[in-house]
Design brief:
Elements: H1 4-14, E1 20-24, H2 28-31, E2 39-43, H3 51-57, E3 62-64, H4 69-78, E4 82-84, H5 89-98, H6 108-112, H7 140-144, E5 152-155, H8 167-176, E6 181-184, H9 190-199, E7 206-208, H10 215-223, E8 227-231, H11 234-241, E9 246-250, E10 270-274, H12 297-300, H13 304-320
Parallel strand pairs: 1-2, 3-4, 5-6, 5-8, 6-7, 8-9, 9-10
Helix pairs in contact: 8-13
């Protein structure tokens, strides 16, 4: 998702360029409807799955927005001119291990553009893009009995446990919100979503869409909400693609790593809630399934009253429009 501004800028600024994109099969839904990509290649485990087809293409140039051992091997095999972005692994390591922040105050999207500077391509300072198909549309009124833009969507999941808000924190936030809620997430989030909806039976309009819809349909639900509450996860970035207000809650990761919501020129559309001053944070640049220190203070000490007030205020502004 965060690479899509580079793809768009390449296509629009070079005009006659043909763009092929290589990614993992798991990311297919993010890119398959992107109009700026002429051909997609997917791998499940290894580039050897597609290397023969890639060699046949005889590429004029390779833009490496991953910059790791796998892409280094790929570039050596394809033997085409290439550029990559500065991954800043040393700076990330210093921040995680010694809490020394030597990272530039720069979003990773802006760093990606350093890989195409040599091609004369510049950042157009427009949002990332996630394209929905006509089949992705979810009729909110029919499915949930709610009107678009009059409910809050909450992305309750994340790949790593230390990025996820605990059950009791989600309950506290929802109890303090003034609007209906739709929970979005994958199959791994179904159990906790059921626990949340059970807690609010006959108390509050809380619905679960977890595990019931594709990524595109879940994104359609989020797009129709007034605001998204999210952990540091993919749905946060999808909401930013739509220009939707986002209230983001950060656990073990930190925005300084450059992966905060990308809203060029519209910083007022998102807010960040984090427990500052913890000596153990960040404990990882991605996350763990459990807190290494066992206390999970980065989430357990979150100010749920402040988060709920933020949500209520943002939805209130939408309803006044």
């Amino acid at each position: 998702m965060l690479t899509t501004p580079v793809v768009r800028a390449l296509k629009m600024q070079l005009r006659d360029v043909e763009i092929h994109y290589l990614t993992k099969q798991t990311f297919k839904a993010i890119l398959e409807n992107n109009p700026y990509i002429d051909r997609l290649f997917y791998i499940k485990n290894d580039i050897r799955e597609v290397i023969t087809d890639l060699k046949t293409e005889q590429y004029d140039h390779i833009v490496d927005l991953h910059n790791n051992i796998r892409t280094l091997s790929l570039k050596r095999q394809l033997k085409s001119p290439s550029n990559s972005f500065p991954k800043l692994n040393l700076e990330k390591w210093l921040l995680v291990n010694f809490k020394w922040n030597r990272l530039p105050e720069k979003h990773v999207v802006d760093r990606y553009f350093e890989a195409v500077n040599a091609l004369g391509v510049k950042n157009d300072h427009l949002p990332c893009e996630f394209y929905l198909s006509t089949d992705d549309h979810v009729d909110i009124r029919n499915e949930f009995g709610l009107a678009p833009r009059q409910f809050i969507s909450i992305a309750i999941g994340a790949q790593f446990g230390t990025k996820r808000m605990p059950f009791h924190k989600l309950i506290e936030i929802i109890e303090l919100t003034e609007f209906p809620i739709i929970l979005v997430g994958g199959v791994t989030d179904v159990e906790i979503a059921q626990q949340i909806t059970n807690h609010f039976t006959d108390k509050k309009a809380v619905f679960s869409a977890c595990g019931k819809y594709s990524l595109g349909k879940s994104a359609s639900i989020v797009k129709q909400s007034a605001c998204l509450l999210s952990n540091d996860t993919g749905m946060m970035h999808i909401a930013a693609c739509f220009g939707l207000p986002v209230v983001s809650v950060w656990g073990n990761t930190v925005p300084a790593l450059g992966m905060f919501p990308y809203y060029p020129g519209q910083l007022e559309l998102y807010s960040i809630h984090e427990v500052e001053g913890l000596k153990c944070r960040p404990c990882s640049k991605i996350g763990f399934q459990e807190c290494p220190k066992k206390h999970f203070d980065c989430m357990n000490l979150q100010n749920t009253s402040k988060i709920a007030a933020d949500l209520n205020a943002r939805v209130g502004l939408i309803l006044q429009e």
